[in-house]
Amino acid sequence: MGVNRRMVEKFLEGKGALITGGASGFGRGFAIAYASRGAELVLVDVNEQLLEETSKKITQETGKKVIPIACDVSKSDQVEAMAKQAFSELDNIYILNNNAGVGDPYGPDLLRLKEKYWDRLFNINLKGQWLVSKSVCKGMKKQEFKPISGKVIHTASIAGMIVDNKIPAYSICKAGVIAMTKLLAQSLAPKITVNAISPGYHVTGIYNNNEEAMLMTMEDGHVKTPLNRLGTVEDVVNVSVFLASPDSDFITGHNFPVDGGIAEVGVPAYYFKSDI
């Protein structure tokens, strides 16, 4: 009963949440869920038009303050300016949802991947999460909330748990995000909790919002999902709501796969051929 009740009560009233990649996909889902539970928001994205549309829609639906900030998370000067603006616009940032990310071109293995794609993915998916954490957590540590002064939630991936050779740079970046989550959890304890969520196969911008494209990659990789359905944005949002709530105050440094069981008890993507 406690957890179910927590899912709808306004436990984020008086608290601020900053979400990168907040204009669409998981980020938009996180934003709606947090605002519905009382949070004021800073939404960060590079797509300015979609960012403005999403921000206005959430304000209309929830009545909560939503500040859109256009920012390339791979650029340290933009991230520092974004964080400064965020703390000036809101009274606090209690939740940092480090969610911005892009995907590989599907197919080329690590030895055939072009350098420009390697650089793009590392700059946004790994360096970007590091830069945002550095800039936001400085202010978060000074907040007076008890027993926890703030919470950081990273979007990782099951591709970082079980590497996928057709999205190699993405896999390495997400493995890095999971490692970074543990390192930050050590550095920021006991004031701030840091956890990660690893989605599996969910129709989002990584797959150009195309279910057929996602199913093609699953078939190509012989993926088998024990819970026998595709993931939804809501599946991931629900775990994020738990991690944003007081129910998770004694959890830090953990990675939560939300994948229908693929990574740990199912069949993750594989492409090798063997007669044995």
Structural class: alpha/beta
| Main sheet: strand order | 3-2-1-4-5-6-7
- Mean pLDDT across the residues is 93
Distance between the termini: 49 Å
What is the second-level CATH architecture? 3-Layer(aba) Sandwich
Overall tally of structural domains: 1
Q: For this structure, what is the CATH class?
A: Alpha Beta
Tally of strands: 7
Strand content: 5-15%
CATH topology: Rossmann fold
Q: Determine Rg (CA atoms, Å).
A: 18 Å
As a percent range, the share of helical residues equals: 40-55%
Number of discrete helical segments: 9
- Name the overall outline: globular
Characterize the largest beta sheet: strand count, sense, and whether it forms a barrel.
7 strands, parallel
Say which CATH homologous superfamily is assigned. NAD(P)-binding Rossmann-like Domain
Poorly predicted runs of 5 or more residues: 1-5
Write up this protein:
With 276 residues, the protein is an alpha/beta fold. It has a single domain, classed as 3-Layer(aba) Sandwich (Rossmann fold). It is built from nine helices and seven strands. A seven-stranded parallel sheet has the order 3-2-1-4-5-6-7, sandwiched between helices. α3 (48-62) links the parallel β2 and β3.
